[in-house]
Specification:
Elements lengths: L1 E5 L6 H9 L6 E4 L14 H8 L3 E5 H7 L8 E3 L1 H10 L2 E5 L1
Parallel strand pairs: 1-2, 1-5, 2-3, 3-4
């Protein structure tokens, strides 16, 4: 069970693709900083939809969504900083995709 933390925007599709390939069904993905752009409804979130279909829980950091004026797709869970800490405690390992 791994928490994947991803902070790159939509110009880093290959990095997100690699992250998705390394993500298992019991893992979670947390989108932070420019990574929250992936949480928005647009054609390039098919990678996230594939993860959701595979049972991966996908979160977007609330403060970063607000700072960028982005509304996340309904399937994406919103996490604040306190929940970010809880996610790191719940997952024995984490991988930062920076």
């Amino acid at each position: 069970m791994v928490l994947h933390i991803f902070n790159k925007g939509i110009r880093n599709r290959e990095l997100l693709k690699t992250c998705a390939e390394m993500t298992g069904p019991n893992d979670s993905l947390l989108l932070i900083e420019d990574g929250v752009i992936w949480a928005k409804e647009h054609k390039e979130n098919s990678l996230l939809l594939g993860l959701l279909d595979a049972g991966v829980k996908v979160y977007a950091l609330k403060e970063d969504l607000t700072a960028r004026g982005i509304t996340a797709a309904d399937a994406i869970a919103i996490a604040d900083y306190a929940q970010f800490v809880e996610l790191t405690e719940r997952h024995p390992r984490s991988v930062s995709w920076f």
